[in-house]
From TrEMBL:
E.C. code: 2.1.1.37
Gene Ontology biological-process annotations: DNA restriction-modification system; methylation
Signal sequence bounds: none
Keywords: Methyltransferase, Restriction system, S-adenosyl-L-methionine, Transferase
Name this protein carries in UniProt: DNA (cytosine-5-)-methyltransferase
């Protein structure tokens, strides 16, 4: 199991009456396959194996190329359908694709139960706190915690290939699990000390339906995957209404039943921690056992010392992005709508901001769809405006660490970058929470260790004190 680099779970399709088996660029790149490389296919009784061929004459085919508009280079792709594959895998059944270096194994999806299960160790023993992200997105929360030098990423779960592409490009030592969590076997889950959980939010966000009592049915799956890690703490981040929902109540109930009996809950706005971007989120920390925890205290920042938009953007702001005129444009219509509708006239809405502005609206995944509830930069001439770039939103407003990079090849477009960032977190807030969480866990370990090794003083039968080890 230590050699597994990634697990992909999906449903097979059909082509010309046969089961179709295809490997996406993300899967092939993780296995180290390149465009044009010769490969062999081994058909086993209950699995199919793809591996490097010794030479072209002894191969069953080559890795194809996929090139899309905007990509700087082609990426590997493999697509095959025949009777041999159909003899092992049925069409429209779920499969697990197990990725190792130079070796891909395909087999039937493993079944599981919904009770506590032992996780399987992935990777080498780590000195830092081991962190699993569920779902990971592109890894902004992971980056925020790893950047504290207190955590080591051991795994990520997400079903969006491009998100895991970005994650894998930055975190190479753990396992990536590309799967719908409802179909993921716990045997693939690595051991972890901390799980950061960002549950589904479509039903609870201000842009969604906000059904406070809705239960999505995912709580048992979140819980069983958390249990598989044997972790000591779970950090949950989501929009505030989620924490009043039936979905959260179900998750909380299951975690409490398994020994997570200390819950700490709060709401934090990133602007209170010095961020120019406002971003109010609910947070919960659950501990396995009686562990004390305190939420980070926001610093007192006088208004005159707060960063401005111009300070975040730095030099070159005028050359970046695409400027448009306000007059006779969609932006003019949005501003008119804002004036007409009291709902958009509140102080918390900052549609056009200036270089000396000290607050912008929260960055959302749909930021590129110009809308009144997002923030855009107004030129000092008052006649032009533009959207903020992905770098400005990520590295600037949300404090993404500067070592975090986008994959080579140009296949992550600017629109996708902004979408991924909008699904992320404010790294300043996560780092502050993560530091307090680490102190609680490390302090508990130190206390337990001292109790194990410190001698006790007891009286013997003669009334004298003696050391008991």
């Amino acid at each position: 199991m230590k050699s597994i680099k990634m697990v992909r779970n999906l449903k097979t399709t059909e082509r010309d009456g046969n089961t179709r088996l295809y490997f996406e660029p993300s899967v092939l790149e993780e296995a180290g396959f390149n465009v044009g490389e010769s490969v062999k296919i081994s058909i086993q009784q209950d699995s199919i194996i793809l591996f490097r061929a010794p030479d072209e004459q002894n191969s069953d085919g080559i890795i194809s190329r996929r090139l899309r508009r905007g990509w700087e280079k082609a990426r590997p792709y493999f697509d095959r359908s025949n009777a041999e594959i159909s003899s092992v895998l049925r069409a429209k059944e779920r499969i697990d694709i197990i990725i190792r270096e130079g070796h891909i194994t395909v087999r039937h999806e493993r079944s599981f139960d919904l009770t506590l299960s032992e996780g399987m160790l992935q990777g080498e023993e780590l000195q830092k706190l081991r962190l699993l992200s569920l779902p990971s997105g592109m890894g902004m929360a992971t980056a925020a915690l790893v950047n504290t030098s207190l955590y080591e990423a051991v795994g990520a779960i997400d079903m969006w290939p491009i998100a895991l592409d970005v994650y894998r490009f930055n975190f190479r030592n753990g396992i990536s699990l590309m799967s719908d969590i409802k179909h993921l076997h716990p045997a693939y889950i690595p051991q972890a000390d901390v799980v950061i959980l960002s549950p589904e939010c479509d039903e609870f966000s201000a842009l969604g339906t906000q059904k406070a009592n809705v239960a999505t049915g995912l709580a048992p799956h979140y819980a069983r995957l958390i249990w598989a890690t044997n972790c000591n703490a779970v950090l949950i981040e989501q929009v505030a209404p989620y924490f009043k929902s039936r979905a959260y109540h179900q998750l909380r109930t299951l975690l409490i039943a398994s020994g997570f009996n200390r819950f700490y809950e709060t709401q934090i706005c990133a602007h209170d921690f010095g961020s120019v971007a406002g971003r109010r989120r609910g947070y919960a920390v659950a501990f396995h056992g009686d562990i004390n925890f305190v939420w980070p205290t926001p610093p007192r920042i006088p208004d005159r010392f707060r960063k401005t938009v111009g300070q975040v953007l730095g030099n070159g702001w005028e050359e970046r992005g695409q400027w448009s005129t306000i007059e006779n444009s969609p932006m003019e219509k949005l501003l008119a709508k804002k004036k007409e509708n009291n709902n958009f006239n509140a102080d918390r809405n900052y549609t056009l901001v200036d270089l000396d502005s000290k607050r912008i609206s929260a960055v959302i995944s749909a930021y590129r769809r110009t809308q009144v509830t997002s923030s855009y930069l107004r030129h000092p001439d008052g006649k032009h405006w533009r959207q903020f770039t992905s770098d400005e939103l990520g590295y600037g407003f949300l404090s993404l660490p500067d070592w975090f990079e986008w994959p080579d090849g140009g296949y992550v477009s600017e629109t996708r970058k902004v979408e991924l960032i909008g699904q992320g977190v404010d790294c300043t807030v996560l780092a502050a929470i993560g530091s307090e969480l680490a102190v609680s866990l490390i302090g508990e370990k130190v206390r337990a260790k001292r109790e194990d090794i410190e001698p006790s003083l007891l009286q013997n039968r003669s009334g004298q004190l003696e050391l008991i080890f």
